[in-house]
Specification:
Length: 363
């Protein structure tokens, strides 16, 4: 492969804007085509991003035939990811895959098998791993600032609704599946990330127990956290809005992750990391590294405190992807690793049916 990686962006929605912008800024990647369900949608996205001399498609198969395409960024709605990823992998293309990668265990297995057979490089877009606070905290944990982690908490608090362009599909049981899958999987991945001390290591979950509830399922009154207003007669969310999940990891650490799509408040992503020599609360740390400490030390960093995709560190993720492809190395956030995050989500679903803890792996 040449030093320039030709990328096809498949899907022309909200998140594609940030994939395209990051790909344009990386010196080793070039957006060579955009594919969407409509040619007009693909053409409009290209024009809005200043891409006037690229091909646009409404058929993924035809787009994959373009010889300049080395990689594909999957930015379609989540219920389409499986078919898209399998098709692109079989065409021998490297992959950036928006989360979640699939909406069932069967889809996860199909995707895994296709990627393994193709031998392509993958990065799954658990983009918060590149958030500045996440990177700083991971570095501090690796350096022993809080000693050995033993308990971790991560929450995803977001009243998802019609303010988000993808909501009408994501709110359904068949296409969205659960609040934990739609957005809370970011918190599950954070739990795994901070439960491991290695610089690029995420802990492997081995047991899950979960409960779900809340008040919002089936209701037609919806809150908009961006405008602090209410919408009457909104299409209802078809699953429970609140899920609380306990996870035990193979290294002995355990933790709790909560997703709350019922909350009446702005978006928040709280973190608590407890070690045997210190503690982290969001961007505050109490550590044995600071003898004589009399108050929490606040870390000046960018927090994961916005649901706006413009706030998310896609540039760092895309730069990492390009580096993995060019150096022929696997990402710490590749498909195989991401399967562990997704398995926690589907183990929670099993737990709701049986009321019993679920042992992992499921695949």
């Amino acid at each position: 492969m040449s030093k320039t990686i030709g990328v096809l962006v498949h899907g022309a929605g909200w998140v594609s804007t940030q994939h395209i912008a990051a790909l344009q800024r990386n010196p080793h990647t070039e957006v060579v085509a955009i594919c969407s369900k409509s040619l007009e949608g693909a053409r409009q996205r290209a024009l809005e991003q200043g891409l006037r001399d690229i091909e646009v498609y409404n058929d993924l198969g035809r787009a994959l035939e373009q010889p300049e395409v080395d990689a594909v960024a999957i930015c379609t709605p989540q219920h389409l990811h499986c078919e898209n990823v399998v098709q692109a992998a079989r065409a021998g293309k490297h992959l950036i895959i928006e989360k979640p990668i699939g909406i069932s265990l069967a889809e996860l297995q199909r995707i895994r098998d296709a990627v393994q057979a193709a031998g392509v490089k993958t990065v799954v877009s658990f983009v918060l791993r590149w958030n500045p606070l996440f990177r700083l905290l991971k570095s501090l944990i690796h350096d022993g600032a809080i000693g050995r982690p033993y308990y971790v908490e991560a929450d995803y608090l977001s009243h998802n609704g019609s303010w988000w362009s993808g909501w009408n599909e994501a709110r359904t049981q068949t296409q969205g599946v659960s609040a934990l899958l739609v957005g809370g999987c970011h918190a599950v991945d954070a739990l795994r990330w901070f439960a491991a001390s290695g610089e690029y290591e995420a802990a492997r979950p081995v047991e899950v127990f979960a409960m779900s509830g809340g008040y919002r399922k089936g209701t037609t009154r919806e809150y908009n956290p961006l405008t602090n207003t209410w919408l009457e007669h909104a299409p209802p969310m078809e699953y429970d809005g609140v899920e609380a999940v306990l996870v035990r990891f193979d290294n002995g650490v355990f933790g709790k992750v909560t997703v709350n799509a019922d909350c009446i408040m702005p978006y928040r992503f709280p973190l608590r990391i407890f070690g045997d020599r210190g503690t982290v609360f969001d961007n505050r740390i109490w550590s044995h590294k600071f003898p004589g400490q009399t108050d929490w030390i606040t870390l000046p960093s960018i927090l994961p405190d916005s649901s706006d995709v413009k706030h998310h560190p896609f540039q760092a993720e895309i730069d990492h992807f390009a580096d993995c492809v060019l150096r022929d190395v696997e990402s710490h956030c590749n498909l195989q690793d991401a399967l562990s995050t997704h398995e926690v989500v589907f183990a929670a679903q099993q737990c709701y049916q049986t009321g019993r803890p679920v042992t992992l792996p499921l695949i």
